[in-house]
Write a structure and sequence with these properties.
552 residues, alpha/beta, 3-stranded antiparallel β-sheet, 20 helices
């Protein structure tokens, strides 16, 4: 019986009890909350449903809890139900009912933890979207990990997710990038506010190899050539780096297409017609304060050029026109202003602002011995995705970047994340998976096939704790999707590994028989427990895009 199953049982029981007592069952919430108590001595699970609805139903909460305890005690899946305090209910499951979780896990396999609660929801998930002017830095790398994990988690809940990269190939930064390439190709100093680093010289050299004499072209032709070729080469590197990192996209959207197609002009015309774009000081402003933004924003500058927000507005319209119900933007720490402006833009078009969600990611630092590390070989002072992978590997990089809430800055300790030791969080989790594989492999030498497992024999505290932790997985994934917080899956995996390692290390919990002893029903039940643990560890690591090694 999973926590969700118990919650359903509780609600059904409470509804029946209220009706039997002549009380209104409509006071019950749609979902009853079931939690694992901090102190295992209080029971396997606890609920405050009697406190929630007692007064609404016109009965003392503790008295209602007593009625519920009596009714639940008659259920074969419940070993005991006891009232605590003013109306809390502590519940212990029967071993067989608790062990049934393992049957569910093994029957579902890779699908365990998935659901269809978001089925029919089409989500555009835009992340990374780093400018094609240099390698992906640590902030973009964090989004490559978190965004990819979030996409997997949302899809696991039934959503149709399109992963999109907004290719910013328009604007002043691209011109500065081209000027920097020209400077490198012609041997002059990098222009002010230009881009430096070995990668600039490498790209400039490749352009010259492709087009001998490129450096001697007339200035305008030369600039355009280095601009076009440089962006192509840089973006090819970005795509390749992301692919090697395990992050791929369904759509690469070019910002320049919004201008070439007339999408920006159409968006501006529509806003003017609705009165949500007004003229002041020779510029055109969107009245975004009317829709909750902290200030109005310039869309068309006084010189007639489009401000950056013009493309953002047209891009949002384009996403909605493609049928997306929800547009999630994953942006860097310096983009807080985008929350208000994007929601205001949606409202200005007469759309629902809730179709826009903006997640802001905080900074990432590399440290060694508590000191910040500047280690880039190709990009000057910027630490890149390639640098991080070279230092700690893809799995550790992805895992470490997803492990914390994006609302907090993180320091990645290079020494910690390269340790082949259980103090390293990813090693701790992956090693748990490898240990389950080893037991399952070794079990092949015994006659488990002829013995039926009796899951009701899994009554030891370590067994129960591990089973209950396994049972939490679907709820963790659902919450991670709902809250847009992939780090919940990471922390859960560490909790699961923390329940498994003591189980396997405890000689009283032996899975395989000693010597010539025959396999018995308890051995077989414990092997089912190990198999279920392996499955959930693999499922969770898969949601993070992290490997589940069979040997370490």
């Amino acid at each position: 019986m999973t926590p969700a199953d118990l919650a359903d049982l509780l609600r059904a029981t409470a509804a029946r009890v209220l009706v039997e007592r002549g009380l209104d069952p409509q006071v019950l919430p749609a979902e009853v909350t079931v939690e694992r108590p901090r102190n295992p001595e209080h029971g396997d699970y606890a609920t405050n449903v009697a406190l929630q609805v007692g007064k609404k139903a016109g009965v003392n909460p503790r008295e209602l809890a007593g009625w519920l305890a009596e009714a639940l005690g008659a259920d074969a899946g419940v070993a005991s139900a006891d009232v605590a305090g003013p109306g809390f209910l502590n519940i212990r499951l029967a071993a067989a009912a608790q062990g049934a979780i393992l049957t569910q896990v093994l029957a579902a396999g890779p699908a365990f933890g998935t659901a269809e609660v978001m089925k029919g929801t089409s989500i555009n998930l835009e992340f990374v979207s780093a400018n094609p002017t240099g390698p992906i830095h640590l902030g973009g790398t964090r989004w490559a990990s978190v965004g990819d994990a979030l996409g997997r988690i949302l899809a696991a809940q039934g959503a149709e997710v399109t992963r999109e990269y907004y290719f910013n190939d328009n604007g002043a930064q691209i011109d500065r990038f081209a000027d920097s390439l020209v400077a490198a190709a012609t041997g002059v100093p990098t222009p002010e506010n230009g881009y430096a680093g070995a990668y600039i010289s490498e790209i400039a050299g490749t352009v010259v190899e492709r087009h001998p004499g490129a450096a001697e072209l007339p200035p305008d032709e030369r600039h355009e050539l280095f601009r076009r070729e440089g962006v192509e080469l840089m973006f090819a590197h970005i795509k390749r780096t992301l692919h090697d990192f395990g992050t791929d996209f369904d759509v690469y959207f070019n910002e320049s297409s919004l201008f070439a197609s007339g999408a920006v002009e159409r968006a501006v015309t529509e806003l003017k017609a609705s009165g949500n774009l007004y003229e002041k000081d020779g510029a055109w402003w969107i009245a975004s304060t009317e829709y909750g933004d902290d200030k109005d924003r310039v869309v068309i500058k006084s010189d007639g050029a489009s401000a950056y927000i013009a493309g953002d507005i047209a891009y949002f319209q384009d996403k909605r026109s493609r049928g997306f119900d929800l547009c999630i933007y994953m942006l860097g720490a310096d983009h807080h202003g985008y929350i208000g402006r994007l929601k205001a833009a949606a409202a200005a078009f007469g759309d629902d602002p809730d179709t826009v969600e903006v997640l802001i990611g905080q900074m990432v630092n590399l440290v060694r011995d508590g000191v910040a590390v500047k280690m880039s070989k190709r990009a000057g002072t910027v630490v890149t995705l390639d640098d991080l992978v070279e230092a700690i590997g893809v799995d550790a990089a992805r895992y470490s970047l997803v492990r914390s809430s994006v609302n907090s800055s993180i320091d990645i300790d290079l020494d910690l994340w390269t340790k082949q030791d259980t103090v390293n969080p990813i090693y701790y989790v992956q090693y748990a998976h490898a240990r389950t594989c080893r037991i399952i492999d070794n079990a092949a030498a015994f006659d488990f096939a002829s013995v039926a497992p009796d899951l009701g024999l899994l009554t030891a505290d370590r067994e129960g704790e591990l089973i209950r932790t396994i049972g939490e997985y679907p709820r963790v994934v659902a919450t991670a999707a709902q809250m847009r917080e992939p780090h919940r899956v990471v922390r859960y995996l560490e909790e699961l590994a923390g329940a498994y390692h003591p189980f396997q290390s405890d000689d009283e919990m032996r899975v395989l028989p000693r010597g010539d002893e025959p396999v018995d029903a308890r051995n077989a039940a414990r092997l089912e427990l190990v198999k279920a643990t392996r499955q959930v560890l693999a499922n969770g690591l898969g949601l993070l895009g992290v490997s589940a090694p069979e040997r370490m």
